[in-house]
Amino acid sequence: MQLFPVRLTDARATRRGKTLVGPVDLVLGGQGTTVVIGPNGAGKTTFLRMLHGTARLGSGRIDWHCGTEEARHHQCFVFQQPVMLRRTVLQNLVYPLRLRGVARAEAEARARDWAAKVGLSEMLDRQAPVLSGGERQKLALARAMITAPQLLFLDEPCASLDGRAMREIEEHLQEARAAGMRLILSTHDMGQARRLADEVLFLLHGKVHEHAPAEHFFTHPATAQARAFLNGDIVE
Amino acid sequence: MVDIWSGLAQAFWLVITLDAELVEIALRSLQVTLSALVIASLIALPLAALLAVRRFRLRRTVIALLNALMGLPPVVVGLIVYVFLSRSGPFGVLGLLFTPTAMIIAQVIIIVPLIASVAHQSIRDLWQEYHDLLISMNVTQGQKIRTLLWDSRRALLTASLAGFGRAIGEVGAIMIVGGNIDHATRVLTTAIALETGKGNFALALALGFVLIGLAIAVNLAIHALGQTEREGRW
Ligand SMILES: Nc1ncnc2c1ncn2[C@@H]1O[C@H](COP(=O)(O)OP(=O)(O)O)[C@@H](O)[C@H]1O
Ligand SMILES: [Mg+2]
C-alpha cells in the first residue's frame, strides 16, 4: 500500500467561508520526517488536519497515491492536547486494535509491549485521564503507533513537556523513522526541528512560505521571513 | 407524631412478619417499575446517543420535545393512555386497561424523556471530548455509539436510577390506568393513596416506609453492581 507521494493542488482549508490555510500546491515524498514550523497562528495545526482529512477542504484537492479512502486507514494523528479515553491505560492502548478486529488477548499482549516500550508498564490499570502531561503524551504516541501506521501526524508533540520527556518522545520518533514510518510533525521548537527534520515546511499566514530539505533550510533560508524566524525575531 | 411512630412500628411489624399482602403489593411495585425501567432504558439510551452524534433535520426539535415532555404531568399521561386503551379507544381490543401492562406503558412514557434528556447531556459532553480522536481513528457510526455509551455508563446508570425513582413513586397515572384493583393492579403508591383516603394513616405510613426502603435498596444494589465492575478490567 503506497500512500506517497501525496499531491496538494490549490488545497484550501476553510471555516465558515474563511480561508484558514492555503491555497497550497505541494508534493510530499515518501521518505523521512517533515517538520512544519511557523509562528503561532500560522496554520500548522490546520495544515496537518487538512492533510489528515479532519479539517474541511474548502477547495482544491489532496491526492494520495493510493486514494483518500485507503490512505485514511494507514495514518494516525497525535493531537497537541492528547485525547484520553475514560478508560485505563491498558484499555486505551487496546482500543485501536479492537477497532481493527484484533482479538482481545492478542490486543492486550501488544498493548503491554507498547506500554513497556514507552515506560508506562507500572500504570496499566491507572485511569488515563488522571495521567500527567508527559505520561499522556507517551500514551497517545503509543496508542497511535500500536497499529503501525505508515504515516503519523504529530501536532507539537512536546509543547508542554520537560526536557527528559521530550528526549524520550524524540527517541521513539527517531526509532519509528528508522523503521520506515513517515512522520509529519509541527513544532515551535527550533532545536527539535533541527534534530528531527529531513525536510522543512515553513508556514506563514496560512501559506507554505518555504519547502526545503532540512540542511538547506537551516543553512540557507530563502526568504527574509524564514531567516528572521530562525533568528528568533518577530515575523510579521 | 403518634401516627409516625405507630406507622414505623407497623411497618417494622409488617416487614418482619413478611405480611402476605404487603409482599404481594411490594413485589408488584418492583415488577412493574423494573419492567418499565428496562424498556424505557432500551428506548432512551440509544435515542440519547443518536441525538448526541447524528445531525439530522429534526434533532433540535426532538431534544426540545424531550425536555418539554420531562415536565409532563403523570396524571395527563395516565389519562391519555386510558383513552387509548379504553374499550372504545384505538387499542381497546387488546384489553390492556386495568392490567399491570397498562401501568408499565404509562411509566415508560413518563420516564423515557427524563432518562433520554439526562443521558443525552452526558453523552454529548463525552462526544465533544472524544470527537477529534474518534473521527481521526475513522470509527464507524456503530463503533462510535458503542464507545460513547460504554465510556459514559456511570452517568447513564445515574440517569436510569433517576427514572426508577420517578417511576416507583408515581401514583397519578397508574391509579388511572391500573385502577388500584386488589390482587391485580394494586401497588405501594396506590395502596398508600387508598389507605390515606380511608383514614388509616399508620398503615399508609407503614407502606410509605416500605416504599422508601425499596427505592433505597434498589439504588444500593445497582451501585454495588457498578462497584464490582469498577474493580474489574474495564
Ligand atoms: N476552529 C477554528 N475556527 C476559526 N478559526 C480557526 C479555527 N482553528 C484555527 N483557526 C484560525 O486559523 C489560523 C491558524 O490556526 P492554527 O492552525 O491553529 O495555527 P498554529 O497551529 O500554527 O498555531 C489562526 O488564525 C486561527 O485563529
Ligand atoms: Mg497549533
Describe it:
The complex is a heterodimer of chains A (236) and B (234). Chain A is α/β, with parallel strands linked by helices and 236 residues long. Chain A has a domain at 6-84 and 151-230: P-loop containing nucleotide triphosphate hydrolases (Rossmann fold), CATH 3.40.50.300. Chain A has 9 helices and 9 strands. In chain A, the strands form 2 sheets. Chain A has a 6-stranded mixed sheet, with helices on both faces. Chain A has a 3-stranded antiparallel sheet with strand order 2-1-4. Chain A is globular, with a radius of gyration of 18 Å. The radius of gyration of chain B is 20 Å and the shape is globular. Chain B has a single domain, classed as MetI-like (MetI-like fold, Orthogonal Bundle), CATH 1.10.3720.10. The mean pLDDT of chain B is 89. In chain B, α4 (74-85) runs parallel beside α8 (172-178). Chain B has 234 residues and is mainly α. The relative contact order of chain B is 0.16. Chain B is 79% helix and 0% strand. The chains are: A alpha/beta (236), B mainly alpha (234). The interface between A and B is medium-sized, with 17 and 16 residues. Bound molecules: adenosine-5'-diphosphate (ADP) and magnesium ion. Adenosine-5'-diphosphate binds at residues 15, 20, 38, 40-46 of chain A. Adenosine-5'-diphosphate binds next to α1 of chain A.
Secondary structure layout plus pairing:
The complex is a heterodimer of chains A (236) and B (234).
Chain A: E1 6-15, E2 18-28, E3 33-37, H1 44-52, E4 57-63, H2 68-72, E5 75-78, H3 89-99, H4 104-117, H5 133-145, E6 151-155, H6 163-178, E7 182-186, H7 190-196, E8 199-204, E9 207-213, H8 214-219, H9 224-230
Parallel strand pairs in A: 3-7, 3-8, 5-6, 6-7
Antiparallel strand pairs in A: 1-2, 1-4, 8-9
Helix pairs in contact in A: 3-4, 3-5, 5-6
Chain B: H1 2-16, H2 20-53, H3 59-70, H4 74-85, H5 100-136, H6 141-151, H7 153-168, H8 172-178, H9 188-198, H10 201-231
The structure holds adenosine-5'-diphosphate and magnesium ion.
